[in-house]
Amino acid sequence: MAEKDLGYRRVQCTGRGSYIISLPKEWVQCVGLKKGSEINFSVQPDSSLTLVPRKLKEKYAESDHAKLKEYYINVDLSEDDLQSALRMIKALYVISADLIRVHFKGSEDVVKYKNIIKNFARATLLGAEIIDETQDEITLQILIKHSEFPIEKAVRRMVIVALSANRDAILAPKKQDDVLFQRVITGHHDANRLGLYAVRQLKFGIEHNLFKELGFRTPKEFLLYRIIVNDIKNISEDALNIINNLSTFQKQIDDQLLFIKEPIDEEVYSQLLNLNSVAHQMFEEATKAMFKRAYNDAEKLIAKRSSFVTLEIELIRLISSKKMDPNVAAILRLMLDSSRRILDYGQDIAELTLNRTVEEICTSFEVK
């Protein structure tokens, strides 16, 4: 039906302080409303109001549920085209694709390329499964639903995984444990999977104007969560960077390309552990304040951040004053920078929490 102007209706006030407005008779008859029929009211971002009869809303929901978003990718059997296909699959996942059919051109190495895509989907795309396979095609379906794993829960889990990976990376220089190294790599992968899923949810929410269904009070909070997801992802990236540098460093020692006589300086390492612990605590408190919409807690954390600058400066001076191998000093600097960035990310999240809640704070008190 084309858009039709039904004119204006005057708002009236009842004796009980309620506001009422009459519905256009033509529209009521057209959609089949009767006494007792229910109408859904939705406030739009521009403060306009959308009225949808319950039967129509349920019909739209069933239609959307039944219609899966399906996409097709053709892959030439070459390394460059395969990498392009992997990026395309990832992008389709983010824009809420339900089905992705990947067709392979040619017959050589099809099995090899199929396995690469299968492993990529399992490692990267949360909820993705291979539901069909032929000689020259595989079909991916994203089975996880937005309601089954809410975005707040995904972000909470992401925080735990990323901080755990970072903590293991900071402990790695002392332990030199392959299991610990692998835990960091796994944590990095898990944080990326959760982050990609969170972005998928955010894009789906923006597209369907579902900010309330995602637990937000305004559409502006989509941007807030997107920034937070990126900060958490960066924590896991830093952890992986530390581990990769340690692995390279250790290999050079094992191959006798480097000869390190002195172990890591205990005084420096102890202060590094302390700074890292402080950074983790601040980041955790910042995310808690964000989830609770706690303006005052966030404000205290922002003021608290400046008090840690002295710790950072003292640690930099201590590292500079020690006569240690430049390679060891470089690893310690990486660890220091990682902890400093976690403090900065915590401050960022606290500031975003202020932006998220300041209107609630400044409109909840009467001016006297």
Automatic annotation (TrEMBL):
Entry's Gene Ontology molecular function annotations: DNA binding
SMART domains hit by this protein: SpoVT_AbrB
Domain SpoVT-AbrB: 13-59
InterPro entries: PhoU (IPR028366), PhoU-like_sf (IPR038078), SpoVT-AbrB_dom (IPR007159)
One annotated GO biological process: intracellular phosphate ion homeostasis
Top-rank taxon: Archaea
Protein name: SpoVT-AbrB domain-containing protein
Species of origin: miscellaneous Crenarchaeota group-1 archaeon SG8-32-3
